[in-house]
Amino acid sequence: MAVYFDHRIEAPECSEVPSQVAWHSTLPVLAVASSSSTSGGNVDLYLQQGEFVESCHVNRPNQPTVLRWHPIKPVLALGWENGEVLLLTHPSGDQTVLPNTHNASITLLEWSSSGSRLVTGDQMGVLAVWKLDARGRLQGNHLVKHEYNKPLTCCIFRPAPPGDDVAKLARASVSGDESALDKFSWKGAPLKMGPQEGLMFYVSTTDGKVYSVDERGKTSALLSVEGSILKLFYHEKREALAVITETLMLSQYTLGPEGGAQELMKVKLSSKSGQNTDIVWTENGLLITATGEQVIRLWDLERDDNYVLSLDETLGFERGEIINCVSYCAGKEILAAGTSHGRIAMWRMVVQPGSNRNDTKGQWKLQTPTEIEGNVIQLRWGSSLNLLAANSSSTVLILCEHVMSAHFSQQVAAVQVTPSQLSIAQYNTGMHLTLQSDIHIKGVCVTKDSVTVWSGKQVTVYELAGTALRNTGSFPCDSHVVAVHDENLYTVEPNRVQVRTPQGTVKQLLTFSKTEGNPVLLSVCQAYLVVGTDTAHIKVFDLTRRDAKAHCNAKNLADQIANLGALRSVKCNASGNQVSILISQVNGRPDHKVYFYDLEMDTMSLSVTELSGRCPISHFWDESEPRLFVCETEPISSESLSVDISVVTLFCTQEHGLLLQDCYPKPAGLQALLALDVPFYYFSCKVNVGQHERSSAPVPHLPHMVSRRALRDFVGLENCEKATRDAMLNFSFYLTIGDMDEAFKSIKLIKSKAVWENMARMCVKTRRLDVAQVCLGNMGNARAARALKEAGPEPEAQVAMLAIQLGMLEDAEKLYKGCRRYDLLNKFYQSSGQWQKALETAENHDRIHLRTTYYNYARYLEAMGDKSLALTYYENSDTHRFEVPRMLQDDALSLEIYVNKMKDKNIYKWWAQYLESQSDMETALRFYEYAQDYLSLVRVHCYNGNIQKASEIANNTGDRAASYHLARQYEGHDNIKQAVHFYTRAQAYNNAIRLCKENGLDDQLMNLALLSNPEDMMEAACYYEEKGTHMDRAVVLYHKAGHVSKALELAFATQQFSALQLIAEDLNENSDPSLLARCSDFFIKHTQYEKAVELLVAAKKYSQALQLCLEQNLTITEELADSMAITDSKDLSEDARKDLLERIADCCMRQGNYHLATKKYTQAGNKLKAMRALLKSGDTEKIIFFASVCRQKELFIMAANYLQSLDWRQNPEILKNIIGFYTKGRALDLLGGFYEACAQVEIDEYQNYEKALNALTEAYKCLSKAKDRSSGQQEVRLADLQHKTTLIKRFLQARRLYAEEPGEAVRLCEALLEEPELDSAVRIGDAYGFLVEHHCQQGLSESGEPGGTAESAGRAHGPG
């Protein structure tokens, strides 16, 4: 059990109103800033219990604005209103003033993660970065200084990327961690060196901008938001920056490796306007806000979830209490909130067993509040001790969690309630005393005559003398543990236990060797003392004599228990032969087992089965019964302090080992187990809980802080004598080991019905129905035995029935709840008169019987005479329309009041009918109107002869039943017009049609028939046809009724062309082909060819439809073409279908629709015509695609021939396709011709003889491979190509030779000019150009010999 004790700070007299508080992250040192409008500002430091540190007092004429502790060293950074920044060192009080950099009020101070950098910022937007050494001392002037020209609001350092911490690895290696040692060895994985701290940070301004400053001090704008920035948070898992503005607009930005920011989400946080906002950010992405409301709002940014926490008035909070501030302790997972009424609310994170904290939203459990004085305006958790500082405007209090001391022995219990106060209970006398000590109590030990308390520095002994406590001795002692037996006190010091008198005199020393270690644990049971040492040794001493004597040698438990780190607790039993031990493992974690050491057998055993999946918290032996052991356990996975705590009782013997006797959850409201003293368990508890005992026997007044609960076997036998108690213990033991014979022998001499009844009650706990039947027989309770047999096949239901018969209603209730038989539980509540619980059970768990429960409760209330409340539950059961009139039938006035009050239409109608039966027509009409029963209104008005009023009601309301009734009235009075009108409003069209036919109302008949069903339409159409008038109406009605053929026949017979056109619009392929044909002929005659074609297609007369398109030159659309060529048509053979498709394609060709023609030719399988149609379209892309898909030789050649007509020289893709298509089409002769043409183009247009030569070479290769029918012609072409190739090669040789031997090149060119048919291969002009260029370079005149040669050559060959 733990509570929070507050320590008010010992503030000096000069201190004013505290304004800020700040804890060091690890040291228990609190900084408090106070300010005054007259004396300036102060900053003081305080220790754990509020002690003032005089050496660290700082006073300035200005106000302090910001406090920030160094993350490691005891150095506090102080920011002042005048721009001064001061470093204060604890405990020396050394003050270091930073060089004057700021001239405005300091708005931010922020340390890097290791404290090597300090960022300062002021109201004018000046930011400076300072460097400090490992001891927290300033190193020179500022490293970086930036001016942002706007007030700075927040600063946050970005954490360094993960890496190996060399210092931690070194420490782990020295301690023997092999994995850490391997990282320093060349054998292991390479050491991933990460930076010791992140030096990059982000800073925000009041104009909504965020800047980043990198490790080198370079700043850059990162992002911008609307409004002043209130908070900056860094979400490490997402690598995202969270920004909160003063308007509580939350934005998240992902941060890239190069410094960019991208908005991830943006949301408006709920808040109360005009209130101060306190915002807390946790490492797991939880955003907590307090905005001056009665709730705290939480946003889980990892899971995009949000919820609220509110105060609970049942725990002591008041309505309207406002939450001012919040603070979160990550070490304890506690959320604290300060309220306007001086209370500190705390929510503890509780994770359900078996759930995972990473993927399941935790639940917050509100604790009992801690009350302080004043209005709590600021809360701060801090230090490694998880201390809480609360600023209540007038002072600051430090709250620390303290584990309450408690002890029970020899019917005396003591429980600590404050740091220096105990609540003491004497169960033998029923006295309740309060002990106020002058020391801080760290422990307590009681006996029947004394109370001993100690603080770790001093021990004080008090004597219990009647109703008073007398101080019998007090002495200084550093022992942290004390045990008491009779008049002896046992304290510890290194390597020995001191036996003292109450005045502190040492009577005896119980020594331990160096190997055995130092005593750290003491426990006394009866006349035996067990001592545990820091080296895991235990030793038991016999205290029955004057001097303590060793009962056994010291036992080294490390030899018996693997992975033993230290002893947590040791206890011995009443005979001193069994010792129970709780240990901690080497890693410091509590072990999940209870170990038992048998001194006589020198054996070690442990509880595995009994505590499977659970961890022991505390353990005790019974003070008089050496076999009985009890311990408190909690689930291993439990992350809360008081969730699912169980009390486990075991029998421990040498013969049978460990046997589970009982296991039950700790009752609600109880704190911790204090002791086991048959027949009771003793618990410490909350105030007033101890007044509720699990016993039916009268007990004396019990103290408030201790509660006792009877053992399962002793319920009802709390005050029995020792013989009965021993018999019951033996019975329980034998029942546990399964020896029923010995169990009954143990209690066979007990003749009391009360004992057998208690035995039967125990059977409810053990669920032993066979034993229960024997007990009921000995009790002579035949009715209970019969009820047990008739309870049904379910064992839980039988046990619950047994509990009911024994008057154990609470147990029966728990049993029904445990087996989830909420239907039986509901009946149980009803039978026992617990109607509120019955209603709650039905509403929450047994909703199938909810209305039945309401009805039964209403009947109960009616029987009790509470008719007003019975009305409510009859209404809830939805039986009030019958039950309430029945209940109030003798009270007409109350019934009328109820009718007027309920305003229920059904009840109004019932009451109106009742009044009508009483001939009170006027009042009946009024209630019929309330009930909106228009039929009854019309009926009564007609009965009264007021048919005009009835007509108004029927017309205004449109009620069909009322209109029908009124129509019958008018028909009975031969008012046909009104009768038809109201039949129409009642949608009784057949009656209206009947009247129209009988009275010749042909005009109305048509409209009514159109509104009615097809049968009425047919009837009206036959009427018009038989009458021979209005044949157009008959046609329309036949058509609307779905008789199209009849409508067409009548339309043709009567020449109703307009109606025929309307009918034709509804014809489709499912219509009668003969009708379609007749309609198409009709449209052809009236030159409506498009409609005629559609009908012919619908009639599947595709040839006629196509012929009509050709004759009338109708454009064939793709939709029409598709409808004429349905692939699954059963009326056309495959050949006929292909022929039809080709005819459609031919028509499309004539109409210029080449793409559609291509499609139809393709569907007909005539790909050659399809290609021709596609060639006419000129769609190059589709031509290439179609040829590639079809893969036919002829199509490849056609496509290649078409592509030659394009500008293939400028489009390499076309050139590639030409070559590929000729190759795939195996037209090598055509490909050769294409290459030859390519060569000629290169010569004529580009004078590129090299490419021309390559093209002619390719042409020669293709012609050589071609299989020409005329071999002689092919040889001539090959020879011609060879000749051209030779001439071009000679010309190219002359051009290449010119650079080295110009004369020889000129001679070769002149010789080339003498060749016959040179111009077919080499342009003569190019040869002359070559010579002219040569002579121009030689500088010879036109009259020289070469010029003459050129002229003569020109005359011989003509102009080039």
From TrEMBL:
Domain IFT140 first beta-propeller: 2-402
WD repeats: 99-140
Any GO BP: intraciliary retrograde transport
Subcellular location, principal: other
Organism this protein belongs to: Myripristis murdjan (pinecone soldierfish)
Family annotation (Gene3D superfamilies): 1.25.40.470, YVTN repeat-like/Quinoprotein amine dehydrogenase
Coiled-coil blocks: 1239-1266
PROSITE patterns: WD_REPEATS_2
Location of the IF140 C-terminal TPR domain: 1229-1339
Annotated keywords: Cell projection, Cilium, Coiled coil, Repeat, TPR repeat, WD repeat
Superkingdom field: Eukaryota
A matching Pfam family: TPR_IF140-IFT172
Subcellular location: Cell projection, Cilium
Domain IF140/IFT172/WDR19 TPR: 738-1221
Protein name (record): Intraflagellar transport 140
Keyword hit for ATP-binding: no
Region (Disordered): 1339-1360
